[in-house]
Amino acid sequence: MATASVSFKSREDHRKQLELEEARKAGLAPAEVDEDGKEINPHIPQYMSSAPWYLNAERPSLKHQRKWKSDPNYTKSWYDRGAKIFHADKYRKGACENCGAMTHDKRSCVERPRKLGAKWTSKSIAPDEKIETFELDYDGKRDRWNGYDAASYKLVVQRYEARDEARSKYLKEQQLKKLEEKNNGENTEVGVSDDEDIDDDLKIDEAKVDESKQMDFAKVEKRVRTTGGGSTGTVRNLRIREDTAKYLLNLDVNSAHYDPKTRSMREDPLPDLDPNEKFYVGDNMNRVSGQALEFKQLNIHAWEAFDKGHDVHMQAAPSQAELLYKNFKINKEKLKSQTKESILEKYGNAAAEEVLPRELLLGQSEKVVEYDRAGRIIKGQESSIPKSKYEEDVFINNHTSVWGSWWKDHQWGYKCCQQTVRNSYCTGAAGIEAAEAAADLMKANIARKEAAEEAPAPTEEKRLATWGAEVCDDLVLDEKKLAEALQKEDLRKREERDERKRKYNVNWNDEVTPEDMEAYRMKRIHDDDPMKDFLH
User: Fold this and answer.
1) pTM listed for this prediction
2) Which residue intervals of 348-427 are DSSP H helices?
């Protein structure tokens, strides 16, 4: 219900208001009337029927839902194309210097630039254009057909009707002309059948034929037996009823899977059968043949181009990707042809040259040559060995054989001197003997060295005294004095750690015995000893 303003109501008034609304919705009470005397639909929600507080509505109304603001001077008219308002006889000051119209200047003139403008000749003054200014509303600015004259479409209809009439008239004239030639007996050629006449009689104007009947275009074969009971689009994978179905080619349960919904079998049902005897190899064959293979290569090229930094995406810009792939193939073929031409220009083309005679190719001739048991020629002439275009049997540096005639220990060399250094001077048999002697000597040295390493010479261990000199052979340490010297050394080290145990009256003996030196050596701490921190 439309309410004018929100005011405080008691509980009883609110209950009565709800009962009245229910009665109006049920049709038991008359509907509420607005300011204009029109009834308000009681089923309109309150958020639509209640007016905003700032309108200060005194009575219930739906005026706030309508376009209550006053419209400006909007118009739906359009420019009067080609309209003229005044045609002057002579040039006027401030007019266009080219055509003489007052409604534009020389820079805005759309007429052909004259050699001498109307300002100087005062001839052929153009009339003034009709200039109009419209204030269009939101829809008027975006109206595509604003200003369109529907009467102008009659010209299009008339042009097509005239073309159809001329075509039908021409066909009738051709038929009458053929009938006259047939009646007069002018057409005496033998073998001409009546099919041409029948075709001419049955010729129908293509413009009048329905588009759905031309060339069987837009032909849709429908399949009615579907899950939903309706019809689908064009049927795929149709087969002749005499052919064997895909799922009957191999009845093994573990063979290729057949999908009855799409009638597809991707794998080969008979992989072990001879390919020449199979007429169906699976639907996967379609993916590697025809346009499917080209599309796959296009996708791969787009991925590789994207990885290399090109802004190419097959799904976002398919035309750009296809054009890039086409340019890539053209450039690839061009580069391949350039490489081929450069190779042919450098090395020549033996296939394009003259074909050698059969006798030279197979090595057959009419010459007769006889040999003895030793292989010497008795009768005839020895056949010459053909040579290539490269230099052969060129001996350098006094060699009698070419490089590569000797092979030993994975190295090439000269057979005459058995040298493996290229461009070296030939030493002959003496060089071979020297090389063999050097090799034997090297083997003997290696064997001697290996024998020396296997049996190392025994080294004599020398006893060193504590003060650095070698121990004399006749030096003998007293075990009892050594034990006493060790005790003295321990006492001395304890006094060094704790000076409180040192006595005031100390008798110092400067005599050092070998036992004292041995005790000092045994108790001394080495800096590089890894266990020095655990001695005390």
Assistant:
1) 0.26
2) 358-362
